[in-house]
Amino acid sequence: MDYKSKIRTIPDYPAKGIMFRDVTTLMSDSEALAAAIEDLCRPFERMNVSKVAGIDARGFILGGAMAVRLGAGFLPLRKPGKLPYETWSESYALEYGSDALHMHTDGVEEGEQVLLVDDLIATGGTAEAGVKLLRKGKADIVAATFLIDLPDLGGARTLRELGVEVMSLVTFTGH
User: Fold this and answer.
1) Residue 43, preceding bond cis, omega within 30 degrees?
2) What is the pLDDT of residue 97?
3) Contact 10, 25 (CB under 8 A)
4) What's the whole-model pTM score?
5) Contacts 24+ apart (CB under 8 A), 64-72
């Protein structure tokens, strides 16, 4: 499937010069969403993934569907104040400030095979925080997978430097 044709590009959002890649158009197309879930899962079908960790919020949509497809559990990596039990936290830098991801301290067991999922990887700060959280729980990170990679922003490279395999269905280069 031509996933690029299913992703809307919005120029100058949220700031001038940014080309925003809007995956909601792909997600609203049932055929494209089903194909994307299949294609995102295919490389991991025989890897005994026990959990799919989805990054708040669009990673929940993909991750939940992928967990069901792979016969795995789903682990939410959430923004601060959203999880009701004891959590670990990892902060990451934003263009103007910082944010954090949280994970329940009992979210993974040592050696569990976990696949990290989000809709897009840009600078990699959020995904790197996810990797660090999973490593606090001593999970074995199978890979990190995304609908979209923006390779010019270096996020996938950052994850690879951390020893995490990175896969995506689509890449958009340039601005």
Assistant:
1) no
2) 80
3) no
4) 0.96
5) 65/33, 65/37, 66/37, 66/40, 66/41, 66/115, 66/117, 69/37, 69/38, 69/41, 70/41, 70/44, 70/45, 70/115, 72/115
